[in-house]
Write a structure and sequence with these properties.
The chain folds into two domains: 135 residues, Fructose-1,6-Bisphosphatase, Chain A, domain 1 (2-Layer Sandwich), CATH 3.30.540.10; 106 residues, D-Maltodextrin-Binding Protein, domain 2. The protein is 34% helix and 28% strand. It has seven helices and 15 strands. Strand 7 and strand 8 form a beta hairpin. Bound molecules: adenosine-2'-monophosphate and calcium ion (3 copies). One calcium ion binds next to loops.
Length: 258
């Protein structure tokens, strides 16, 4: 196994166990607001530190870019960490959240894990070696059209986001597909596209740490990723589309005039 992926899996397991215990013992969770509709808890912060400690034990010189503590160190290798993706679910007692960790070498993602500790599902990928769920190889769904597709999405809950624009896309897409799901964890949405549970995923306004791991897992499972107009996706893009190749093509055709 890719050495970085081994450490990412170890860090995600450690943090995931800690988060799952806290989820079961709800009384030790202290939530704080970071801004409008944006929450963090002591568990996010402690899980992030566990992940960073685990990485630094094997790679003391590697750089870190983590949601709650920001940038740390300078190196060709950078670990992009979202300790709990789906904090709103976590705080509400909704059992749908994950740990997301990506490893970048000179700016290219080479290893990734998305771990759902309650389902004990470890989605992972190493560049050029495919994607797995636990020990099983992953493949995106085979559906060729939007007709028959289920798409995951996220609503524009962030301050300053354009709800009308989002609804224009929704109006164009919704009648074409079976249904949409809004589950509240972008990293798991991407992992589910990789696993063929969803045929595609689209959202506006995500951050690098939300998508860094999931994007590699989708690509290594045979999926395609771009921004919502079909331009190359980077961690700074203001929108994301990830889907199997057939749905990807039809999605872009459907929204091209918006
Ligand atoms: P987070 O839990 O790490 O903050 C989905 O829309 C994404 O947005 C999630 O991956 C989640 O990441 C983030 N998010 C932040 N606040 C949210 C909210 N109020 N509702 C839904 N998602 C939220
Ligand atoms: Ca957050
Ligand atoms: Ca997140
Ligand atoms: Ca988070």
């Amino acid at each position: 196994m890719n050495a970085y992926k081994t450490i990412a899996v170890r860090a995600a397991n450690r943090a995931g166990d800690f988060i799952a215990k806290a989820f079961a013992n709800r009384d030790r969770i202290i939530a704080q607001s970071k801004g409008t509709n944006d929450f963090v808890s002591n568990i996010d912060e402690q899980a992030e530190q566990l992940i960073i400690d685990t990485i630094h034990k094997s790679y003391p010189d590697h750089a870190i870019f983590a949601e709650e503590s920001g940038h740390q160190g300078k190196s060709d290798v950078e670990w992009v960490i979202d300790p709990i993706d789906g904090t709103t679910n976590f705080l509400r007692g909704i059992p749908h959240f994950c740990v997301s960790i990506a490893v970048r070498q000179k700016g290219k993602t080479v290893a990734a894990v998305v771990f759902d500790p309650l389902q004990d599902e470890m989605f992972s990928a190493a560049k050029g070696s495919g994607a797995q769920l636990n020990n099983t190889r992953l493949r995106v769904s085979a559906s060729k059209k939007l007709d028959g597709a289920i798409l995951a999405t996220g609503f524009p809950f962030r301050e300053g986001q354009d709800l009308e624009k989002y609804l224009e896309y929704f109006h164009a897409l919704y009648p074409q597909c079976i249904d949409m799901r809004r589950a509240g964890s972008a990293a798991l949405d991407l992992a589910y596209v990789a696993a063929g549970r969803m045929d595609g995923f689209w959202e506006f306004g995500l951050s690098d740490w939300d998508t860094a791991a999931g994007v590699l897992i989708v690509k290594e499972a045979g999926g395609m990723v771009s921004d919502i107009k079909g331009n190359q996706y980077t961690g700074d893009s203001s929108s994301i589309l990830a889907a199997n190749p057939g749905v990807f093509k039809h999605f872009l055709q459907t929204v091209k005039n918006i």
